[in-house]
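Researcher: Structure prediction, please.
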Amino acid sequence: MDSTMIIIAGIVGLAIGFAIAKFMEKGKASKTIANAKRDASRILKEAQTEGDSIKKDKIFQAKEKFLELKAEHEKVIINKDKKISEAEKRTRDKESQISNELAKNKKLNAQLDSRLKDIEQRKEFYEKKQSELEKLHKSQVQQLEVISGLSADDAKNELVESLRETAKTDAMGYVQATMEEAKLTAQQEARKIVINTIQRIGTEEAVENCVSVFNIESDDVKGRIIGREGRNIRALESATGVEIIVDDTPEAIILSCFDSVRREVARLSLHKLVTDGRIHPARIEEIVKKTEKQIEAEIVEIGKRTVIDLGIHGLHPELIKAVGRMKYRSSYGQNLLQHSREVAKLCGVMASELGLNPKIAKRAGLLHDIGKVPNTEAEVETPHAILGMQWAEKFGEKPEVCNAIGAHHDEIEMKTLISPIVQVCDAISGARPGARRQVLDSYIQRLKDLEEIAFAFSGVQKAYAIQAGRELRVIVESEKVSDDKASELSFEISQKIQTDMTYPGQVKVTVIRETRAVNVAK
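Model: Predicted structure follows.
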């Protein structure tokens, strides 16, 4: 019983405790729910308040953006309206201008029509007068033919024949007198300037050709240069563009090429290869490339030294390079750089004597033949004077220098006093004895052609080309050629030579007429 009561009491206690716990838990949950509701309502109010403020801010920003866009749009519209108004104004101006032009054109057309009508009337009048004059002329000619007993053509031929000889003699006398007068006034001063210029210039004679000789220490080197089955010499010829001739000439190899730059590259490359001892195709290509770069640097250095020696400043680097390339070019056997230096010095002296600017004259004299060293094959077809002038214009040279370069062979008109000076100095440098080398056959043929021209004229007994073709002496028959005819013959032969032949410098024509009376005393 006691244990049962205890158990019952325990169960009842547990039930009471559980009921008390449930009641307390229910009170706490209701309190928690109430707190949560208060927090939720507070959060909702805060969120609503914050949302309203954000909404107001966004509405304000949207209004500001709208006003800004509206202002920009209005500004664009105003600019467009302004442009449209300006375009309309220009259009109105153009329309008014066009209307004025149309009015002027109508007026001019009316004037032109009236002038055309006037011209037509005058033309009809002149044609009528011309026909009347022709009829009158024919009647007068017929009357003259009846009176003289000769036709008009016969009378004209007789008159022409009678006047021809007189006119020739008078013309030759006038020409001779004019030439003598010009010589008296100009020859002395010109001779003084030219001789003084030539005496003050130290000339250097340089003869270039198409062959260079490479000397070697022994003939054993020839086999190494040729290589196995000729591969070394083929590689060297392919890399340099030079023909290499290995023959029986002792201790020498011949390099043949018209381009002296390529010939010099081949010579230096051979020297390096022989000195180094390693001769094979790969080494050959490497040495040739290095040598080409060395030659290019040397060309620039030569150009710089040349312009410094002549006192020429401010020359474009490309023109300096062209001046350097002239060292490896020749013209008629005369080294082009030495020729250009000589012409520059001559131009400077002659310009000083004539009271002109010697610096510009030197500049034009040095650059006058730069067209002979073209960069590309296309430029070869352009005359060297024109090509040189184009380069000078391209690289900022003065107009008088460009004109002197382009006009020194009369391709263009001379516009400054420097141009004839460059032309004369070029002729002096090229025509002096020893300056240029010519092929013997062409030289002899030129002298023969000179003599043949003289023999083509009637009355010529003998003709001699002397002083290396600078003078032609003609001996005539005194019975067939008079003194007046001798002067005329000299003039005609000189004109024939000038027209038919190409020659350096000038050719003096001397006609000799003499009468000899010979008797023998026994």
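Model: The beta strands are 211-215, 243-245, 252-256, 330-331, 334-335, 460-466, 471-476, 508-512.
Researcher: Thanks, that helps.
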